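Example complex used in Figure S2.
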Amino acid sequence: MKDEVESREDRVGKLKGLGCSRKRVEDARFTQGKGNYVDDIKLDGMLFGDFVRSPYAHARITGINIDAALKVPGVLAVLTAKDLEPLGLHWMPTLAGDRQMVLADGKVLFQGQEVAFVVAEDRYAAADGIEAVEVEYEELPVLVNPFESLKSDVVLREDTVDEDGAPKDGAHGPRKHHNHIFTWEAGDRDTTEQVISEAEVVAESDMYYHRTHPCPLETCGCVASMDKVNGKLTLWGTFQAPHAIRTVVSLISGIEEHNIRVISPDIGGGFGNKVGAYPGYVCSVVASIVTGKPVKWIEDRMDNLMTTAFARDYHMTGRISATKDGKITGLHCHVTADHGGFDACADPTKFPAGFMNICTGSYDIPTAFLEVDGVYTNKAPGGVSYRCSFRVTEAVYFIERMIEVLAIKLNMDAAELRRINFIRKEQFPYTAALGWEYDSGDYHTAWEKALKAVDYEGLRAEQAQRIEDFKAGKTRKLMGIGLSFFTEIVGAGPVKNCDILGLGMFDSCEIRIHPTGSAIARLGTISQGQGHATTFAQILASEIGLPADSITIEEGDTDTAPYGLGTYGSRSTPVAGAATAMAGRKIRAKAQMIAAYLLEVHDDDVEFDVDRFVVKGAPERFKTMKEIAFAAYNQAIPGIEPGLEAVSYYDPPNMTYPFGAYVCVMDIDVDTGVPEIRRFYALDDCGTRINPMIIEGQVHGGLTEALAVALGQEIAYDDMGNVKTGTLMDFFLPTAWEVPNYETDHTVTPSPHHPIGAKGVGESPHVGGVPCFSNAVQDAFRPFGNVHTNMPHDHWRIWKTAHDLGLHG
Amino acid sequence: MIPASFEYYRPKDLDGVLALLRDHGDDARVMAGGHSLIPMMKLRMAEVPHLIDLQDVAGLRGIEVGAEGIRLGAMVTQSEIIAHDGLAQAAPILREAALQIADPQVRNMGTVGGNVANGDPGNDMPGLMQCLDAAFTLVGPDSERQVAARDFYEAAYMTAREDDEVLTAVTIPLPKGGHAYEKQKRKIGDYATAAAAVQILKEGGSCASASIAMTNLSDTPIFCEEAGAALVGSTLDTAALDAAVAAMQAAIDPSEDNRGPVDFKRHVAGVILRRAIERAWSRA
Ligand SMILES: Cc1cc2nc3c(=O)[nH]c(=O)nc-3n(C[C@H](O)[C@H](O)[C@H](O)COP(=O)(O)OP(=O)(O)OC[C@H]3O[C@@H](n4cnc5c(N)ncnc54)[C@H](O)[C@@H]3O)c2cc1C
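Predicted assembly (1093 residues):
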């Protein structure tokens, strides 16, 4: 047999398992335009629905006249809140325990809010129908600033007050004011106050992490098809969590869950934007039930930017205390969180501010306190985790800015300050002051490697020279060195404290091995570009000894895939990846029994070796997994059921904690405010590396989105609540032209509790990248007295920093 | 993002275009590359019941570089301008400017005629054509006339062109001396925060003539004669540069938008103009 001459190395190579930069199997169809996205779905008789949206940010609706719209050729129906009310569907629950209007119920709370749903034969007729719907608005005072909202007499949401106008309790406890949503605390308030008041050094900073938007390439949409004959509803859509959507649809529509099939086809990016439920889904389902025809709803770009889930919008105030020589003693953080008109954050139920309490970062900070106040304003709802685990970007930005601010106060090098305060390798598992147990880490090694790679000392020397040249009038460009060290908290999460709408955040994998030694595995997650079909096959290849190329990965169809909570918060590899490995091990356990039977030895006398079981001590006696698979289907083996299948539902014992060290070198033209990124070095430690090429791709993408957010990407409103950045002309999406060459690097600190030691990487570069770009801008101005300026650092804001520091003479 | 419905016409000759314009008056509009018009229609900011596509109209294409000057057919695309070597020799500022417009996809469709006829203060070619002292040929139902680029722009989207006239060509006297098109923008595909077109002739070490026009700093392009005059006769010393910048800043009237507030734009306009002058001078 040929197998006998094959080296072990060759056999490992053939599997294309863990550690192999296997080409993405998805790309053949994506690069040839053969993907199948929701807007590619075309069904017989399919109708198109679209929204009449509010031009006002806050207004009472005094009348809606649909007569003219119904006369537009091709328009079949116009739904308003009145039509949905008898079904109880004019409002829907949000993931954050709040509720949200599906169609404006007497008033609107943000510009672009859904007022009526026009159903027509095609999207052109729908667009004309929208123009013909007459809505009478009575404008109300607009609140776009959360601090003013908390002081205002204007009640944004009548359902937040009782008959006497007093605030009622919200989903997360008492309200401080009628426009207040919740207060969430972590840590020890009194001790923190005491430590800070007694500290040798205290640094303080206010910072605003501006509102932005995930802006996936593909906008949100769905096709709902109610088959009245068999009572089955099929719903295709851009869902990052198809199974959760099925449960939600069942709960709010009353259709039994087995009669609902939710399918996420190919998804063109999600980044958190496609986690929640949108009025478009509900209206499409209702419209399909009403008309008996399939109904499609697809957002355009402006709808997506203006109305679907935004990210960030955190006003943060920090105090950090330290000894004179830089040992941090305490951290205090207060957040005023602007949630817009409805609280539609996508966070685990018990965490209304997500994992903001990871804000002690990578540092051994003995005492800390965090308090978050959620507030209603006249802006779009959302608050999703844009390429990060729940609010981790905000947390990491906060601590990485506070470190810089403290370094300024101490007149200390910020790299050194980090070094002094890192959690040490031997402290892991480490319980942080705000409650999380960090599973593993080796921060000092990563930091030294990063600083050495960029020649940090050399960069600082160059910068010192640059400052002298600038002062001497020889150059108008300053040099900024941005540092950041981040710890992510991903892989939500343990069912004991993580659920969404009561659904535990486990995940799942089901494997079927076919007789000829190939396989299909289905998972509860759904790829939106991450390359699951490639990487999960690699995990399995290493676990079950069949080539990755012989393993199909399928996700996103709730009729076939096992239940799972979907893909966001870098949870797929930590949770579903673990389920995959565990299911693979079940396969292997059965395969071992079959192999032992075939080799006529005891189960314990065979051992797994790459792609086969061998008789211990007699490597020439073996059965390959391919042979074993066949035997599972064609032999009657005493005491063993035929077939070779396994399912695993994995409830992770803990989160995983990827980390990394980033350095950015930037030149800044003080006269025009134009920054030029000269260098970006990114070291990521995501534990075991499944596919280095995909990791690199994820890092590039995440850094590019970080660059966008740090340097210009925002959803800005004027005082009237009008969105000023509703198109891609003003909403900054960088192109290849604006993006630097990234240098990537890594260390490997496997997660001790994950079956293969993997931690997740999709979001790390974004989390670590944003503060790194921002710190580079701020560092350039540090010698001239800058302590903190807010993002986004677009040209005029950088220019203004220079101007305010007197650098324009 | 779906336009109101419209009738679509694709005439083969200019007479066909003029006839349609006559028949439908205000309700008709010509379309060149469509890369300004279609977005406006999709946003329903422009309603065009009768859309006349110029793609098949004979006689509107072609780049001619002669001893006296240059003639660009209205339907010459921005990428054709970039690709044309003779043009790059004769008037290198055209390529330099065109390369800073939008991105390759837009430039494959966008035309010089559409860019100058559009009247959007963000368009780069109007200022460029003012700097070069170009003239636009306008053909109406029974007339043909030439209008200087410097006299063409009245306000945002308001030009000297009558509704029933078609812009058929742009003629440009051969530019002399050094050139520069300097543009600050937020990213590829963005209109200018500030842009300057400069053409300078140097004789015997000093400036013999200078032509300066600015883009996106008022509701029309700003041809700034005083700024050019401030340089003439000088060796482009600091005083002359300061005077040119001051004259330009007195002529512009920027408004605040997402690119930044007025004081920022004024300052950047000064920086950009200074850089453009210095680069043009170095090539003069
Ligand atoms: C993403 C993007 C970025 C862009 N960035 C820039 C930029 O940085 N700088 C820049 O200058 N432009 C920019 N543009 C605009 C682009 O250059 C357009 O193509 C150009 O402004 C118009 O040319 P067009 O041929 O597409 O004209 P169209 O869009 O077809 O027409 C524009 C207007 O001119 C009229 N018109 C066109 N041709 C004639 C004619 N021959 N006679 C009379 N009237 C006519 C039309 O009726 C219409 O009102 C951008 C466009 C996009 C989509």
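DSSP finds twelve helices and 14 strands in chain B. The CA atoms of residues 177 and 201 of chain B lie 4 Å apart.
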